[in-house]
Give the backbone structure.
Amino acid sequence: MRIETICTGDELLTGLTSDTNSRFFQGALLDRTGLTVKRSVVVGDDRDDIIEALDAAAARCDVVLVSGGLGPTSDDLTAECAAKAAGVALVQSDQALRHLVERFEARGIVLSENNRRQAMVPAGSEVVLNAEGSAPMFIQVRGRCTLFYVPGVPREYRHLVGAFVVPRIAALKGGAEVRKLALLKTVGLPESHLDERVRPLAAKYPNVTVGFRTHPPENHLKLLAVGTDEAATSALLEQVVAEARVVLGATCFGRDDETLPGVVLRALRQRRQFLALAESCTGGLICELLTSVSGASDAFYGGACTYLEAAKTKWADVPEGLLAQFGAVSAESAEAMARGVRDGTGVTWALSTTGWAGPAGGDAQNPVGTVYFGLAGPTGVKVEKHRFHGDRERVRSFAAFAALDLIRRSLEGSPS
Amino acid sequence: MRIETICTGDELLTGLTSDTNSRFFQGALLDRTGLTVKRSVVVGDDRDDIIEALDAAAARCDVVLVSGGLGPTSDDLTAECAAKAAGVALVQSDQALRHLVERFEARGIVLSENNRRQAMVPAGSEVVLNAEGSAPMFIQVRGRCTLFYVPGVPREYRHLVGAFVVPRIAALKGGAEVRKLALLKTVGLPESHLDERVRPLAAKYPNVTVGFRTHPPENHLKLLAVGTDEAATSALLEQVVAEARVVLGATCFGRDDETLPGVVLRALRQRRQFLALAESCTGGLICELLTSVSGASDAFYGGACTYLEAAKTKWADVPEGLLAQFGAVSAESAEAMARGVRDGTGVTWALSTTGWAGPAGGDAQNPVGTVYFGLAGPTGVKVEKHRFHGDRERVRSFAAFAALDLIRRSLEGSPS
C-alpha cells in the first residue's frame, strides 16, 4: 500500500511553524498497521500547487492524508481544491452544517457566512464530524485512491487521525497480521542506558521489535509483538513486558497511557494521603502537571509557587534568617520549604523545589541547572541535589519530572 | 522565483525524527531574500521516489534544495539519483577526494572504499567543500533550474545553507522583490471575526498579503508586504500594521516575538508593580506561564495554587463561612481569593481563578467550563465570569490566557 501525506499552509513554509502532525500520523500508522509513509509534501496556500499535489498523489497512491486549509478564512482552500481536482462540485453537507450550528449555538456565538463555508465538501465525499472543532473531516475516493482530509489544528488532527484515519487504513489493508504494542515509561534513565539494559531481550525474542521513543524528560521503551494469532501475540507481549519490567526496576513508572502525575496521584489515593507543594524554580509546573489530571483534588491539596523570598516566608513559613544565612537555593531552604508547607497544611507529604533554571543566576557552588528537592513525609525530610543541563525550559521540565519521581519512589517504598 | 526543497531519509517518515533543516532554510531564505519556499517534500531512501521527486521539482522550479543521502552508507542514494535523473555519469571530483583524504589523515583514520564514494558527483556539477564534514555539497544546473545538494547532518546543513546556498539564491534573484512580514497577536477573538475585521485592509492594500495563524488560545494576523524598495516596503508594512492595530483595538496584545506573559511582566515592570496569584481551576498554569519568562522575579511575587477549600483559606485567607455559603466556584470566592492574596502579600495586583475545568463537576448555574476571575488592584476588585468550551486541557489553557489578558488590559488602562 502506497501512502503519502500533503499538508497545506504558508506558515509551514516560512520557518515559523513546523509540521508536527505528520510525525504523529507516521508513528500511529506504523504502530497500528506496520505501514510507512512514502512521501510527505508541504504546499503553501495556493490553488494551483494544492491541486497539482492532490492529482500527483492520487495518481500514484492507495491512501493520501491531506491536512490543513479547512478553516473558515479566505486562505482556507483545501475543500475547494479537492472538489476541483476531482472534477466535482462543492456541496453543502447538511450533517456538517447542523454540527456547526449546534456548536455555535452552544457557545452563544453567531454563525458567520465564513463559518458556513466549513460545511461545504466535494460532492460524493463521506463526512465524519469532528468532536474537537468546527471543520468536519471528509473522505474522498478517486479511482483506487482514498483521500482523507482533516483539519490541521493539532488537537483536532490527532483526534481524527487516531480515531478514524488510522483504523480505516488498517481496515483497507486487511490481512491476517496481528500487532500488539506496549510502552514502558521511564524517567531519569538516558536512552543509551535503556538500550543497553534491554538489548538481551531483543536478541531473545525475534518476533518482538524493541524500539525507543524520547519524550523528554521521559524515555519510553516500545515493544511491538507481531504474530498471526490474537491470544498468542498478546501472551508473547505480556511475557516480554514482564521481563522488561524486571530489567528496568524502579526506573519504570508506568505503561501505555499511564502518566507520571497520574501514577503519583493514584499512589496517594490508595494510601488516603494528600500532597502539597512549595515550588520555586519549577514555578507552578508541578502543580500544573498534577492538576491536569481530573480528580486530582482527592489527593492533591494545592501548591505554593514561592517565587520571591517573601513568598517563601509567607506561604511556606521559611524563616527570613534562614534565607539570609544559606540563600534561597540551598539544601536548607529546600528542607525548610517542605517542612513549612507540611506543618502549615497538615498533609502527609510536602515537596519543594528551589534552584537556578537559568539563563541568569547561579554561582560556583550552585551553577545554573542546580535544583534542590525537599520531601517532607511521615519519617522526616529528605533532601536531594540534582544538576540539569540545557535551557530554562528544559531545566524546569526535567526538575518537575524528577520531583514527581522522587515522591513516586518514596510512596512505592511506603505502606499502601 | 519558484523554490522547493526535497529531503531524503526513511527516518523522516516513521515518526522518529522530524525535518528541522527545512525550517532553518525557510527562515534564513525569508530573512535574507524575502523569498518563500513553495513546496517542501520528504521522500524515503528509494531510488524511484528520489528520481521522480527530482525530475518533477526541476521541471517547475528555479531553485531546488536537496538534502540528505550524501553519507558513506549503502542507503545514501542522492548523488547517484541526481546523476541518473539528469542523464549524466557519476564522476570522481579530485577536489572532493583530496578533501576527504586530508580530513581522514588529520584524524588518523583509514579512508574506506565507502568513504571514497563521497567524492563521486554528477558530471558537470560544481563542488563546494564542506568545512564541517566529509561529504561535499554540489550544485547542478538542469535547464533553468539550479539544484543544490547538501548533507542532511544538521550542523553541516546549517553551515552550507547559511554560507553558500542562501547567498547564491540571493545572487540568482538579483535586485527584484523585497518582502517584509509582521505578526499581530490576539487573544479572545475567534479567527472568523479576525478575518471579517481585517478584510477591508486586504482590499485596500493589494501589495500586502493578509493571512491568519491559529495558536490556541491565540489567533495571529499575518501581514506580508511586497515591494521593490527596502524602505518603501517597510514603510508600507508599518502603515498597514498601524491600521490593523486600530481595527483590532485592545484584542491585540503584541507583535512578532512578543508573548502574552512577557507583555504582562513588562507592563508591571514599567509601573514597578508586582503581581501575585491565587489559582484554583487553572492549577498553576498561569504561574507556569509567567515564570517561563526569565527575569519574572522583578514583577512576579508568586502564586498560590489553592486547589482544596482548605488551601483557599490557608493561603488566600478566604473565610471558611464564605466558601460554605457561596461555594468555591462563585463570584464571591473569586473576589475573596484575589482580595485575600493582595492583602496578605502586599502586592499591587492579585489575580484569582476558580471554576470547573471538567470533565467532572459543574451544576446548572455554573456548568463545566465556567470560570470566575477576580482581579484586585489599586481601585478595588473586579470580577468576571467566562464560559469556555472543550476538554479539561482546553478550558484550563483558555482560562489562563483570558486571566493574563484581563490583567494586561487593566494594566494598559492604568497609569504607567
User: Anything to note?
Assistant: Chain A has three domains: 3-173, 178-255, 260-412. The longest helix of chain A spans residues 392-412. Chain A touches chain B through 90 residues (CB under 8 Å).
